[in-house]
Amino acid sequence: MLKSRLLIWLTSSCLMLCSSQALSFGADGHRIVVAIAEKHISSKTAAAIKAITADTDLGKLSLWPDTIRHLPTWEQSKYWHYVSIDDHERFNSLERHSEGDLLSALEYFRTQLQNPELDAQQQLESLAFLIHFVADIHQPLHVGRRDDRGGNKIRVKWLDQAKTTNLHRVWDSLLIDLGTKSPEEYSHQLNTASKQQIAHWQRATVLDWASESKALRSQVYNFSPATLSQQTIITRPYIVRNKPIIERRLLMAGVRLAGYLNRIFDQRPQRQKQ
């Protein structure tokens, strides 16, 4: 009964989020990552996930962490969606946020899911957080500079739109143009990794994922050719240059999420019978 009520709550929360503009790695991005991952998980992992979620759509479940990060009981979780690191800093000597960050959250929820004795609510919440954060860490500005809060403080105009937005939102959602496709159809289009690529990507560590995102910032902040405006405009050349980058990061995130889940559930001991 507890698990059933929790699933209803999570699902309704995710449906509310889908109509919101305040998204972390926009809803489409998270759904695409999950759809790719589902094509690469093992049968044992799929069965373990089904036992946790009772067939709740994983795409919707992946959005839940954004619905609760501003609630008083989950206020701490707002720090888990990113890690702040300036260009000159290194991860091995980085002063980390006292409330946690994206790197520590991924490690924590991986450990949680490896414990078969967690109750139903803890398993479902841990799974939601983990699949969400694997996507987030592949978005370059979730491994962001402190001074501009991962691009959130950089005001830009998207093409010829009158309203301004920010650079973070450009990379969270605006570069991901589905057109008439659903996230599932778009994921099928992106899911072109070879067996060699899959094996290589899945060998990388979480710290490797973060380092890749940090390295991509030089391209994120490259607005050349410069516009003749005091305000930064996201131009067609910028979009053409960077859309393949975010699509590759979506693909890598999906492939790596599958590998991460397989390592957790394929090796997890069976729950002890009461």
Describe this structure in words.
This protein has helices at residues 2-17, 27-38, 43-53, 58-61, 64-68, 102-113, 120-136, 167-174, 183-190, 195-203, 206-220, 236-265; strands spanning 83-84, 143-144, 155-158, 164-166, 232-234. It is built from 12 helices and 5 strands. The relative contact order is 0.17. The chain has a single domain, classed as P1 Nuclease (Orthogonal Bundle), CATH 1.10.575. The model is unreliable at 1-5 and 14-23 (pLDDT under 50). A hairpin with a 5-residue loop joins strand 3 (155-158) and strand 4 (164-166). With 274 residues, it is mainly alpha-helical. The chain starts with a helix and ends in a 9-residue tail after the last helix. Helix content is 54%, strand content 5%. The longest helix has 30 residues, at 236-265. The strands form 2 sheets. A 3-stranded mixed β-sheet has the order 4-3-5. Strands 1-2 form a two-stranded parallel ribbon. Helix 2 (27-38) packs across helix 7 and helix 2 packs across helix 12 (236-265).
Helices and strands, with pairings:
Elements: H1 2-17, H2 27-38, H3 43-53, H4 58-61, H5 64-68, E1 83-84, H6 102-113, H7 120-136, E2 143-144, E3 155-158, E4 164-166, H8 167-174, H9 183-190, H10 195-203, H11 206-220, E5 232-234, H12 236-265
Structure summary:
The chain is mainly alpha-helical and 274 residues long. Helix content is 54%, strand content 5%.
Classification by helices and strands: mainly alpha
* Strands in their spatial order, largest beta sheet: 4-3-5
List the secondary-structure elements in sequence, H or E. Answer: HHHHHEHHEEEHHHHEH
CATH superfamily: P1 Nuclease
Gyration radius from CA atoms, angstroms: 19 Å
Termini distance? 18 Å
Task: Give the mean pLDDT.
Answer: 89
